[in-house]
Design brief:
This protein is an alpha/beta fold and 205 residues long. A hairpin with a 2-residue loop joins strand 2 (26-27) and strand 3 (30-31). The protein is globular, with a radius of gyration of 16 Å. The model has no long low-confidence stretch (mean pLDDT 94). 34% of the residues lie in helices and 26% in strands. The protein has a single domain (4-129, 157-179), classed as Spore Coat Polysaccharide Biosynthesis Protein SpsA, Chain A.
Length: 205
């Protein structure tokens, strides 16, 4: 089954200050967008990688091209509007794994596992949520939240959808994940420092 990756990379990085594009913020010398692209390329299940950018993310688009990903221009009207626009412009009529560009701990094995869970669910959509207390345990400050079965979770930025039904309300599987791959969503300089410390402490020798 064809499954493609769509990385949403239109963020401006306002919490970091200055004019830097958020996907271009560097972690251990490598832009966040490159960490995520490399994870999708390492997946055995993903056949293609697309990166959604806007008119104010030219450097991000250039970096994506250098990393052999295909860019798609969106209007910058917001995450969900740009996602719909990208899927429609690319005519993606297959399962689409969507992820934000600020998840540097993603890897191919983790993404393959998410795709497997999506297939097992037999639902047209899937979202990955993270317990807020787990984020705080790692020194992270979540900014987006989701209510599920009476509890509030942090949004990981990892989802799957059926591209054929992008304009419909899709039945959704929810996964609660406590793995670092989903937890380290970089929204602030403090998050970036926490990710740096985690990677240095857990780097394979």
């Amino acid at each position: 089954m064809r499954v493609v990756a769509l990385i949403m990379a239109g963020g401006r990085g306002k919490r970091f200050g200055g004019d830097i594009e958020k996907p271009m913020i560097k972690l251990l010398g490598k832009p966040l967008i490159k960490w995520v692209i490399e994870a999708t390329k390492a997946s055995r299940r993903l056949s293609e990688t697309y990166v959604a950018v806007t008119s104010y993310n030219s450097r991000t688009g250039d970096e994506a091209a250098r990393s052999s990903a295909t860019t798609i221009q969106t209007k910058g009207l917001g995450y969900h509007a740009d996602l719909r626009q990208a899927v429609l412009k690319l005519n993606l009529t297959c399962p689409v794994l969507t992820t934000s560009s600020d998840l540097p701990l993603l890897n191919g094995e983790f993404l393959d596992d998410i795709i497997g869970k999506y297939e097992e669910s037999r639902k047209s959509a899937l979202t990955v949520l993270v317990p807020i207390e787990t984020c705080r345990k790692y020194g992270l400050c979540p900014t987006s939240f989701y209510e599920h079965e009476g509890n509030t979770y942090a949004v990981s930025g990892i989802n799957m959808i059926d591209g054929r039904r992008i304009l419909e309300e899709q039945q959704q599987e929810v996964i609660i994940c406590r793995k670092p791959e989903a937890i380290f969503n970089i929204n602030t300089p403090k998050d970036l420092e926490s990710a740096k410390n985690y990677l240095l402490q857990n780097r394979k020798t």
